[in-house]
Design goal:
There is one protein chain. Helices cover 38% and strands 0% of the residues. The protein is mostly helical. The chain has a domain at 12-43. The model has no long low-confidence stretch (mean pLDDT 78).
């Protein structure tokens, strides 16, 4: 991921991936915005997503 820009942006690839997340049932139908955020993070190769309200996602676990 490029560190020259602090903001992640929507892309056509993220839009397609977001639609796929909703289509295959990975996220509830009312979570289209969450699907887009996850898709943008995926396409941007983020290592983690921090959120207080992604209740339907599995939490990140740490190993010592």
């Amino acid at each position: 991921m490029s560190t020259s820009n602090a903001y992640l942006k929507r892309s056509e690839e993220a839009k397609r991936l977001s639609a796929l997340y909703c289509e295959i049932g990975g996220l509830p139908p009312k979570s289209k915005d969450d699907a887009m955020r996850i898709a943008i993070a995926t396409v941007s190769e983020c290592d983690a997503i921090l959120s207080r309200n992604f209740k339907h996602l599995h939490p990140l676990t740490f190993s010592p």
